Amino acid sequence: MTTLVDTELERVRTALDGLLASWLPGRRWYAGKDTGTPEVTTRLLERVLPGDPALLVAVFDAGADGPYQALLGLRRGPAPVPPDAVAGRLTAPGGPALTLYEATEDPELMTRLLECFGAGPRGPVRFERLPGSELPLGVPGVASTAEQSNTSVAFADRAMFKVLRRPVPGTSPELELLGALQRAGDVPSAAPLAHVRTTDESSVGALTLGILQEFVRSRGDGWAAATDRARACLAGEDGAGTPAGAGAFAEESYGLGLATARVHTALAEQLGSRPLTGPESEALLDLLGERLADGLRAVPRLAPYADGLWDLHEELRRGVLGGRPPLVQRVHGDLHLGQVLRAGQGWVLIDFEGEPGHSPEERRRPQPALRDVAAMLRSFDYAAHHALAEALGRPPGEAAAADPRAARRATAWAVHNRQAYCAGYAAGGGQDPRRDPVLVRAFEADKAVYEAVYEAHNRPAWLPIPLAAVRRLVEEFRHEN
């Protein structure tokens, strides 16, 4: 195998900012797709696998946004990757043409990637294997095609490597939580095997760049399973409309509640739980209030519910400050049906990095466990209305009005599965969500407003789903009070 020489790497280093600036807007993991061509500043570029092709790690800022990470392949001549994976080609008089491209699209480089973990410490980028872990060396690595904020590479059914496109300072929150669950033992999660980081002395400081973890053999994720059963319910294939029919997925929902409670219990045992202090309670309430105010400004269609949403917020304030403060602990932080897999022994929770839009400090901040529960309850609602839209062949904003009877069946499906999930969570040792309606309702409202902002900016046709949830939550509150 020939090796790309330092002069060729220097050509890449010189041209990299411009190449990335043109290429980034087409990458699914880049958050600034709609803001035009960014101004890129490369902060670190390291060769971690020699040869031709070579594997490079680049950490860079894109305008005020960063840091980002790219795994880049470099070859003399063309690269065996799709055209949109090519970041650029460099030519020089008398020198060979070089191709710079997205390395996760190159099976040869991904198969060699795991070799880095056996190389030992070298340079500012470290590939560190966890004690006792076995790596599937030589197994082909294939990148996932899923739309994600990170990129995952599967090594058959042995391991999964996650490239953290937005690396965070220090240890990744996900790595912290996976380690805690591994120490707890017998918890539905994927054990970490190794990780990639930069050193404190590097030009970017200490960052977690990637996580290698066990591959979870599954029958698919919760979103696919739930929407499939919801469609069957709407089609009347299981006696839809009756509690039994609407609950055809209820056993799965109950099991998912059990799995969520087991994860929360393990995290509390390993990383601790405690009541919120007075200042922390004030800070949490202030944060929720700021998020609500921001959401109301961003989505004018929330205006009819503004008074009711503020009433919900005040109800929570009275409960938190006037009663017993809730317990807080480390939580998943972005729990929904797409973040759970149906494995052979039950549900497994995955992707513990938290909401991508939140800072690492906020993701690490202890939260009431019911925040995860409320997020999952919202996901059941989304699954039901997604199935309704698909069944009727209408956008979500039109589906309910087009067939009110089908819409009621979809709502019944969501209600029964939400109840089954809460029952499973309580049976698994978690705090019964049904006994703390104020906290659950407040977190559901917060999540629904967050969803409304997202849909208004990205999928306007889906905005009626969170708007309907906000209306329901406000009406429930007013009926009870």
Characterise the protein shown here:
With 481 residues, the protein is an alpha+beta fold. It is built from 14 helices and 16 strands. It has helices at residues 6-23, 107-113, 173-184, 222-234, 243-246, 250-271, 278-298, 306-322, 360-364, 370-392, 396-402, 404-427, 437-458, 464-480; strands spanning 40-49, 54-62, 65-76, 86-92, 95-102, 125-129, 141-143, 151-155, 159-169, 192-198, 207-214, 218-221, 273-275, 327-329, 340-343, 346-349. Helix 10 (370-392) crosses helix 13 (437-458). The protein is globular, with a radius of gyration of 24 Å. Mean pLDDT is 89; it is low at 239-247.
Q: Gist?
A:
By secondary structure, the protein is α+β, with helices and mostly antiparallel strands. The protein is 44% helix and 21% strand. The chain is built from 14 helices and 16 strands.
Query: What is the averaged pLDDT score?
Result: 89
Class by alpha and beta content = alpha+beta
Q: What is the strand arrangement across the widest sheet? A: 6-10-11-9-8-7
- Total number of beta strands: 16
Distance between the termini: 74 Å
What general form does the structure show?
globular
- Listing every helix as H and every strand as E from the N terminus to the C terminus, the arrangement reads HEEEEEHEEEEHEEEHHHEHHEEEHHHHHH
* Total helical segments: 14
Question: What is the makeup of the main sheet?
Answer: 6 strands, antiparallel
> Which percent bin holds the helix content?
40-55%
Radius of gyration: 24 Å
Uncertain stretches of 5 or more adjacent residues: 239-247
How big a fraction of the residues is strand?
15-25%
